Structure formats: C-alpha cells, structure tokens
DNA sequence: CATATTCTCAGTAGTACTACCGAGATTTTC
DNA sequence: GAAAATCTCGGTAGTACTACTGAGAATATG
C-alpha cells in the first residue's frame, strides 16, 4: 500500500506532463490535445530517451508520456533508469505496437501504463490522470494481454480435434490414466487408446507429457 | 482496437455507476465520495452478485463497482456473467486483498480494473473514469502483479526441487522420453527414472502428463 | 567430523503407453 | 443412397513409465 505521493488535483494544481517522442509532429499533436484540458500542463519535450531522463530530473514532472522507439536511448531503457532514480515520476508509455510481449516488458521496466497511438484524446487524458493518481492504465485493446492471451478469443482449434477427442484430451491433461478416462466416459480402454493415438497424431506429440500443453492451448482446462 | 463504446464525458453526460457491496456502510462511504463529483452518478446499489447482474441488465450503467466477497454470488462469478451478457459494462472490482492470485482471476473473469479498499477518493474516481473510457485500471500496490511472477520475482519454488530435478523436469516437459533425457544430461536412464520418481513425489502427480503443468508453473519453459 | 542432502545407478516387477493391424456401428456429408 | 468421418473395440507386441528397495560417491551443513 505504499503510494509514491500520488497526484491529487486539489493539492498540487495541474498535472505536470513531460513529453518524449522523436517526432515533432507527434509531440505537437499530443500537446494540442492536452492544452485543451486545464488540469494538464506540458512542462517540456524531449526527443530521445537520454534527454527524457535528464529533463525528468530537472523538471520533476508528475507524468512522463514517452514513446518506446526513440534514438540514442529508447523508452524502455529510459523507463528503467527513471524507476531507479526518480521513482515518483509515473511513466506512461506510448506505442504503435499492440504486441503482447511489449506490454510485459514495459511494465517490467517500471512503466505505469501503456497506451496505443490510435487512442482518443479523451482516453489519453484519462490515462495520464490515472497514472498521475497512482494507478496503472492500459488501453482496452491490450487488456487481454495482461492475463496472458486466451481471454477474449475462444481459441481456434488448429488441430481439427473432434468433440470426443477434446473430452479425452481434457481428462488426460488432468493426469488420469486410460483406465480412469475410460470409466469416466463409459467406454473401453482400447477406445481411449485409439483417441490417444489420434490425438498425438493430430497435434504431433510423441508422448503424453506434451498433451497437457495442447489442452491448455485449446483452453480445455481452467 | 475494438472498443465497446467507451464512455466519453462530453458525449453522454455523467458516468453512471452501479454499486455492489454487501455492507451498507461501505456503500454509503462510496456513495458519499462519488456524489462530490458531478461527472459521476450512482444509479443503484446491489447487495450481492446476483442482484448486481440483474440490476446491471435493467439499469445499464457504464461502470459496475463491485466487491469480490458477497453472499449468494460473489464478484468474480458476477463479473463472468456480465461479460457474457452485458459486455459493454465495465466491471471494476473492489477488494481488501492485494493477493497476486486474485488479480489474475479478476481480469480473467472479465473485470476491467482492480482497486483496494484503502484507495483514496481521488484514486477511486480516477479508476472509475479509466474503466469507463475503455481502459484498464489497477491500484499501484498491485501493479507488479500484472507482470506475472516470472519476471520480477524469481518464482518461489513451492516444491523444493533441486537444480538437477529442474533440469530433468524441463526435458520431460519438452516431451523427451527418459532415454533422450539421459543422453542429454549424460546420465543413466535409471537415474532419470529416479529423478522422475522424486519429481512426482514432490509435486504430487501420478504420471508424466501433469509434469508439464508444474514445469510451466515454475517458469521452466518459455 | 558426523549428518544430511544430492546425484548417481541397479534389481525386480508391474502397469501404462505406443505402434501397428483390422473392423463394425453410427452419424454426417455430398 | 453412397462416401466420408467419427466413435467404437479387439489382437499383438514392444517400449516407456511407475513402484519399491537398496546403495555408493560427492557435496553441503552443522
């Protein structure tokens, strides 16, 4: 419950924002957006990671809104540096990639949020307010990533398994030997073995050890 | 980038909030907090999960601010139900637990945020605004959890496995039969069998099928 | 230095799984 | 209504895994 002096609008006036992006056009666009809101104040602009770190030290903004890809020092490296030296500054990462891998890396680097560049003005303002007041913010598009895939998409079956095969696979993944699977499904052990053989062929695994992976991949567990 | 009609303050007036908590005291407290802000409107109060689901259907709030622990139907079950029937409603979970396990479960259940009950009024308002405008919000205290163990925390080993056992387990999880594991590690097949036996004992699984799960749990794969 | 742990390996036996073959019954598909 | 797919089950054989006991060597641990 240790909150690093979260920003409260009433206590300190406007939220001070430092922008970091190597494209002037993008910076201008963001600045134009944020200027419309009185609670936000853009206190500076950096064009690369190193500059962002230095300016953060001098300007002490509440929020650093920073692009991931920048010359000299990228957003992730800068975020790590800032976490170590200026932990009170909330870093909000701006990116064009909705790649799942990125999000994890960004949070690990110490960022407090991750938003995509196609975000609306309203959402961007909300995101800045969120991280300034001590929270974590993520664009809705990358939300499912937080859980680790499998959430929203019902998972396509790339193996073409039949209903019965999925039942057998589920039981196997739970660790049940053929005898128990047979009893549970009311069929012969030999039939279970048949299914097992077909399963291995379809998913391309040599033995039972890997069937768990597939079962999980198909979302048969939970 | 499919956003389920995110709330924009300018377009639809105040954010409509439905409260769900079995303690009247807590509801009163939240209501008192939110009433101070003109952009928020509490449209109803539910005292359990089932009621929350029903009221959500009728009142169609923008945000459902809901406790996890409630009688009849808890917050997680309610969240899952709402995701299926009312995906447009952003569920924000309120909890006293900062348990890492909970957060994942909550997001998997379809919630758009997780805040602790010791949160400040300012933060709570920000959180509601965040999820209403299409984002995900998490209290700062539970932020590190989002990364998912494996990174920041070196993953506690609840089974007390030795280094060698982890090596064997990793190979087994990849689907290698004992003979190959033995060859890879330069030891006898019998030794691998010993490790295998010890592994099953330590992690409590009957056969190889479940060892994959453990390997993954310990982050031995990636 | 005694003790404990880990890693190593073996014997024996039983159970489970894998790899083929074939085949009847039922349902779905064209 | 024929063809294809699915689900069912059996034989035979070989390989892999499980269970239990025992034990030597190297490495911590106290």
What would your notes on this structure say?
The structure is a homodimer of 222-residue chains. Chain A is α/β, with parallel strands linked by helices and 222 residues long. The first copy, chain A, folds into two domains: 9-147, Response regulator (Rossmann fold, 3-Layer(aba) Sandwich), CATH 3.40.50.2300; 163-217, Winged helix-like DNA-binding domain superfamily/Winged helix DNA-binding domain (Arc Repressor Mutant, subunit A, Orthogonal Bundle). Helix content of chain A is 47%, strand content 14%. The first copy, chain A, contains eleven helices and six strands. A six-stranded parallel beta sheet of chain A has the order 2-1-3-4-5-6, sandwiched between helices. In chain A, strand 1, helix 2 (24-35) and strand 2 (40-46) form a beta-alpha-beta unit. The model of chain A is unreliable at 1-5 and 147-155 (pLDDT under 50). Chains A and B meet through helix 5, helix 6, strand 6, helix 7 and helix 11 of A and helix 5, helix 6, strand 6, helix 7 and helix 11 of B. Chain A binds a DNA duplex (30 and 30 nucleotides) through helix 8 and helix 10.
